[in-house]
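Record pair follows.
FIRST:
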Amino acid sequence: MSHPVPRAAALTAAVALFTGLAAAPAHADTATQRQRDFAAAATEFGVPQNILLGVSYLESRWDTNAGTPSTSAGYGPMHLTDLREAGVAGTHHDEGTEDARGDDARPATHPQAGPAAPPPTLQTVDEAARLLRTDAKTLRTDPAQNIRGGAALLAKYNTGNNWYDAVARYSGSTDQAAARTFADEVFDTVKTGITRTTDDGQQVTLSPTPDLVVPQHPDPNPAGVECPRRVTCESVPAPYQELPKDDYGNHDLADRPNSQKIDHIVIHDTEGYWANVLDLVQDPTYVSWHYSIRSADGLIAQHVPTKDVAWHAGNWYVNAKSIGIEHEGFAAKGTWYTEAMYRSSAKLVGYLSRKYGIPLDRAHIIGHDNVPGTTPATIPGMHWDPGPYWDWSHYFDLLGAPLGGFGLPGSSLVTIDPDFAKNQPAFTNCDGPGTTCVPRGSEAVVLHSEPSESSPLLVDIGLHPKGTASTMAVDDVGSRAATGQRYAVAEVRGDWTAIWYLGQKGWFHNPRNARVAKPAIGWVVTPKPGLATVPVYGRAYPEPEAYPAGVTVQAITPLPYTLAAGQKYSSGGTVGSEYYWATTFDPANHVVVKGKLKYVQIQFGHRIAFVKADDVRIVPAF
């Protein structure tokens, strides 16, 4: 349960805030247009400029995002929301053929969910338009007017000369604790200051206010919720419930990490709005995940204890050894993720990585799009969220584990790390088949079959069984390297670099003055001498002899790819073979099967994969 901010504390915060504002230096005359727009709007509506800048940063990082809506229907630097324009979508759990559970020992799960009514908080553009006597389209498309609209709303929300409460209300959250968390993040940003270049090339500076007092609150989180301090979490339990026909849902009880080590955290997006997502995870006939994070204010809801196994990744081996986190948002519709959500997510992932010893790298903090198919038949239906517009580089900066730049020049291993704002692949199908996506920043680097932009993309025989080349469709990950992933260099020709990818050379433009890949250090795997090829797998299952009586042996099925002699792939570490037998409602009958067989996780294509340790050599990259 959340509690309101005590009035005395709020007033004290307001006094401290104004003290800090008085000390804030004026911006130089060299400020760019965006900077001047903030200054003008702050003066016009009587809003402290650093508060206006701080709120905008927590919403959009001062970006325009090419006029596209955020994952919670917000537009422009001030994130004015307009659900009418952004539209309503369902949930990605209803799309494709992926079985979220991904366990061959149980029937596939393909539940369907109906649309939900969107929340009224996603329509602030109308109120701003009334205050400015303009129209919603102007506020969505004109950055200067968008900033004026946000300033007008803040001024209206400032009752009792209390800017802290005004900022909290601006979050749009109906949960007071979550609104306070948003305001705390704004105040922290105002206190420390920040400078960055926006996605449209504007230089904006929020000068630090080091003597600003950020209000302190008791931990608002209910007992039993696994969350870090300084974020707001709530408990929205997913039901473990017996169903007809010897079925049950929507997750499995376990005893991790005592029973199985947790190796991965899987980042998802919901493809639906908050209320609908929470309804789904509370349906015993549906699927599950451990946490959801709200876009507008970063509120975290926990659904499944981390000791238990949720059904979220479409691969039972990965499910049994991972924690799944859903983010309110959309992978394809040209949408962007708010800074408030990025920050809450990074705090949660940092907390979980420390708790379970999960490395903060892209071999272990993965997207749903990096989870491998279990067999050749399941590859085409695997999901591909959070999509190419999730900013992995910024996310890892927030985690305190920045990507790239740690290897020596000429290293045979590279980390993909393009400039997110400048890297704008020409994707299609964001708004339906045949449509062209709005050009905007992306974490994805597109690979070609030759060192030329006009050459075909690579062939992913798993995604395209007929052997046709991959496409620029936003959901086609068959010829796409993701930020933070590490690959072995196959060849360099001038400004072009080739990496080993799905058994092929994947070429990308990597000019010296605008690198999209940086030298890395680490280990790579290659077939042992005498082996022309080795099989590649989507899960690390035990040898048949490891299964006790009464537990069905799971097939070790290779994927339709091979790792050939002379090729190298980045190692994500050696793992033991495991299978979690959980087919009954009573967890007393569940068994963790552990074999003698060892595997090595590799970065094989866009998705991770596994090879048997006995088949490969692990050598340092030079």
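SECOND:
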Amino acid sequence: MPLPDKNQIEAKAHLLPILRAAMRALEAEDYVQAENLLDSILQQDADFADALHLKGYAALRRGDLAKARQLVERAIEIDFHFENYHLTLGHIRLAEGDRQGARDSFGAAIVLNAALPDPYIGLAHIFMADGALDAAIGALGTARQKHPKHPEVNYLLGFVLMAQGKAKDAMIFFGRALQSAPNDTRYRLGFARSLHGLRLKKPDPALLATTLPLLGTPGVEPRDLASIIESAIQLDPTFTILAPIDAMPAANVAKVLAAPQCPDPASSDAFAEWLAHGLVMHPAIARRLMALRRGLLHLAVHDPAVLDRYSRLLGLIAIRNFQAEYIDQSRADERALLQQLDTRLAEADPASAAPLFAVYATYHPLYRRPDHARLAAAAWPAAFADLHRIQLLEPLQEKTIAAAMPALTPVDDATSRSVQDMYEESPFPRWHQPILNSPLTVPVRLRSALPLQTIPAGSITNPQVLIAGCGTGLHAILAASSYYDARVLAIDLSRASLAYGKRKADELGITNVEFAQADILKIGSIDRRFDVIESFGVLHHLRDPAAGLAQLVTLLKPDGYMMLGLYSEVGRRDVVAARELIARHGYSDNPEDVRRFRNDLPRLAPDLAARLARSSAFHTLSDLRDLVFHRQEHRYTPQQLRSLISGAGLEFLGFEFSTPKPLAQYQARFPDDPTATDLDNWALVEAENPDLFANCYRFWVRRRA
């Protein structure tokens, strides 16, 4: 936010250092410090327009919209001709839901300084909220003519083009934004999403050099990069030259690996980075990994000296298989070799036998070995430091955390205990890097999620947030960074899942989340009330979802909001078909049967297998178990959602989508429903777009007064 021309404040030059300090505090999101500094200026000069404006901006960021408007309008009265004042007023009006007023303010800013990109960005946000995507592109195009390298302009152009289904065009603009600001999480995420499904037909080193650094960075989903990276791997000569080993028995694979001219697969950057941070989805790459694993196992038993050449490969396969929870089946000859290796490892020292332990870790996790304490305490070679951390230190730390996890309610419902047992064995989901958002106030967060609703400004400060069914903590950590000055309580049935979340929160320095064990069916007994409750993908696993929702409603303050995620009957049609196959053929939900079902599915139902394999959930054991083997599942239609919501005394506010496209299409089809809350209409939309809610219905409700 630039300072005015020095000539305008010559008489106030002694206040300039304080003003600059306040601006630095605002940039650091330290609004209390900023307002204290600005108050010290206004005590000396009550009509210092820049101080009034900046204090109004701080109030906007804190969510005090009434105060923000008062301060910024006063600044405009004093100095109408400074475009930034109008720009801030436009954002205040937009946050208040006054789109026409915001449009007027952004227009005034353009009149005062047509070269400024920010008011065009503001107009684009209004057009996107209105579903007018072409108009948004027009506003952003005007800004880009003046500022072709402006990262936010390029990012928003990519965002709108993605909403129009133009991923290749979006990729260009996301790439430009990322080039200008390579550390911006949103730009990385946008670029990654634009690559979803893109396969290389020939090597493209430049695109791969931009893509690989995205792996392992906050918010980037490996599934978005799977097609491009896995196609790059299959084009790599290091990969293609080893194709014959896929069908070989262990002894023959070992001979190939022992040959001096055999290339190290880990020398391929794409292959190595994908094993370290990605999610193997292509069957050809999965077959190669299984072949390499059995060959390395044979070497471990019969010629272990060769393994020294493959230290990096061993560590990477062991880490990948651990993260996928050993989803790949092993053969009978491998199991016999593994028994021999296990015997050899009983007294072995990791300092000298780390490659042998790494081979074992490609089949079973080290922390579940009887001698895990000895292995955790040992000194491991640097080449296997990540394996030591991931397979020993972190899981054992989680066991300690789980043992000390507080319990808010008993877990004695039979269905709850069954579900709890499932997640104790398979904590879900395993995740690595979250998106840490810039915090928003509750009304601003709601307006972002529900652009067609009028959300009152309210006066919620220090919001109390409940994440009901937090799993392994990703949702809770996201909420902790999404709500300004919030305190978050995250509950779940599974201590193992909670421990994973607590460890990750501690690693990330997230201090405003409290984790505790509780059953939603009993949670109404706690003596706490919440401004916001979020429960995504949880209630449909309860014995009685309506009873669980009733418990949550008792904890919601009268002016509180709730976000729910529930399975769609239409969206889960492939899952229903898979569950019918599982029941018909008698598969249980133990890990070995989950692997066996996955292996058998292409033979039992090839088309269904192909569709399910496109989901990332098909490629890790806990995800697949959660997807098709869950012990308790309810599904809904839009009309059934209405009954559930009204029965709980709640008001439906609308569905939340990650792009503006679904709401824009709805508005075009049903212009007489400006808030997009008619669930009968949504039933028609879903019937025509059966994958619209394939993940879940994600929607917001409000407690009726």
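COMMENT: The chain has four domains: 6-192+206-211, 226-402, 413-568+635-705, 573-628.
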